[in-house]
Design brief:
Low-confidence stretches: none
Strand content: 5-15%
Number of helices: 11
Mean pLDDT: 94
Structural class: alpha+beta
Largest sheet: 5 strands, mixed
Radius of gyration: 20 Å
Length: about 290
C-alpha cells in the first residue's frame, strides 16, 4: 500500500464525528473541550483537569482499544499464536496501571470508589468475546501474512481532506486481504448505527485518499465487542460518499459560525456558546462544576 500522506500544520479547525457530536450536544461543553485557553473566568488548568476525568465505561473502552492495538503490534513482530495466559496477565496489569493513573468522574462528583477489578471484569469479557470470535481466527489466517502492511491506530489524528475541508478520521485497524482493504472499528458501548456508520464512511474516505482505493474495494466494519461479539458492515458507494462529503461541508461551516477568525480558529466569547437545555445530559458532563448551566 502507499505511504500515508502528510499535511503541513494549519490552525483551521478540522471536522470529526466526535467534534461535531460535542458541538451538537452542547455548545458550552464544546467550548471547554476545544477552546479552554480562551476562557476569561476559569483557569486553564482547572478546565484541563475536568476534561481529563474518565468514567468506568469510557476507561474500559480505552483499555480494550489499547490492548487490541498492542496485540496487533505483537502480530507484526511474530505470527505465532498468542499465549492466552500472558495476554490476560498483560490485560490485567494494564488495567491496574490505567485505573491507578486516572481520576474517575464517578469518584470526583459522586464520591463513588471505583475498583480496578470492576473495570477489568468488563475488559476481560470484551477481550474474550474478541479472541473467541470467528473474525479473530480469520485475521490470524488471512491478514497476519501481510501484517507489514497493516495500519494500526496511525500516528497523529488521521488527517485528511473531504470536499476540500480538513477532517480527522483515525482508523482503529486497516489491513489488506487480496485486492480489498478492510477497516475494523472496535466498539465497547451501545450500538449507534447512524453515528458509527458515519464514522466508518469517514474512515473509508481516509483510506481512499491515502491509498488510492475505490469505494468498492474498501470493506468497513463496525465491530461490537460487548455484551457479545457482532459486526455491522457499512456500505460505501459513490452516492453515500457524495452525501457524506456534503454533510461534512455543512457541519464544518456550522462550527465556523462560532469563530471570529476561521483561518486562525479563534472562537467567539464563551457567552456565545450556549448550554444545552437537556439537563439530563448535564449530569454526565465533566464540566458541571464550573458550568452555570447545571
Amino acid at each position: 500500500m502507499n505511504e500515508i500522506k502528510k499535511f503541513s500544520y494549519t490552525d483551521i479547525l478540522g471536522w470529526s464525528v466526535s467534534r461535531f457530536d460535542k458541538f451538537s450536544n452542547c455548545k458550552r461543553q464544546y467550548f471547554y473541550d476545544y477552546y479552554s485557553k480562551y476562557d476569561k473566568s476559569v483557569p486553564f488548568e482547572k478546565i484541563q483537569f475536568l476534561k481529563s476525568l474518565t468514567s468506568k465505561a469510557l476507561e474500559a473502552g480505552n483499555i480494550v482499544h489499547d490492548i487490541i492495538r498492542d496485540m496487533l503490534f505483537r502480530f507484526q513482530k511474530s505470527s505465532k499464536p498468542i499465549s492466552r495466559d500472558k495476554f490476560f496477565k498483560y490485560s490485567f496489569d494494564l488495567t491496574e496501571k490505567y485505573c491507578g493513573e486516572k481520576t474517575f468522574f464517578e469518584t470526583y462528583y459522586n464520591g463513588e470508589a471505583v475498583a480496578s477489578s470492576e473495570i477489568y471484569a468488563k475488559v476481560k469479557t470484551v477481550l474474550e468475546n474478541f479472541i473467541n470470535s470467528g473474525r479473530f481466527s480469520w485475521i490470524e489466517t488471512n491478514a497476519v501474512p501481510t501484517s507489514n502492511e497493516w495500519v494500526i491506530e496511525p500516528a497523529g489524528f488521521g488527517e485528511t481532506r473531504i470536499n476540500g475541508f480538513k477532517a480527522f478520521c483515525k482508523v482503529d485497524f486497516l489491513f489488506p486481504v487480496g485486492d480489498k482493504i478492510y477497516i475494523l472499528d472496535w466498539k465497547t458501548g451501545k450500538p449507534d448505527e447512524i453515528k458509527h456508520s458515519k464514522q466508518l464512511t469517514g474512515y473509508s474516505l481516509w483510506a481512499s485518499y491515502h491509498f488510492g482505493k475505490e469505494a468498492k474495494d474498501i470493506m468497513p466494519m463496525i465491530v461490537y465487542l460487548f455484551p457479545q461479539y457482532s459486526e455491522k458492515s457499512v456500505v460505501v458507494d459513490n452516492k453515500s460518499i457524495a452525501s457524506f462529503s456534503k454533510q461534512v461541508e455543512e457541519e464544518t461551516k456550522q462550527m465556523y459560525e462560532y469563530l471570529t477568525d476561521v483561518e486562525k480558529n479563534i472562537p467567539k466569547d464563551k457567552g456565545e456558546f450556549p448550554c444545552t437545555s437537556n439537563t439530563f445530559f448535564c449530569k454526565y458532563c465533566n464540566y458541571r462544576e464550573i458550568c452555570k448551566g447545571f
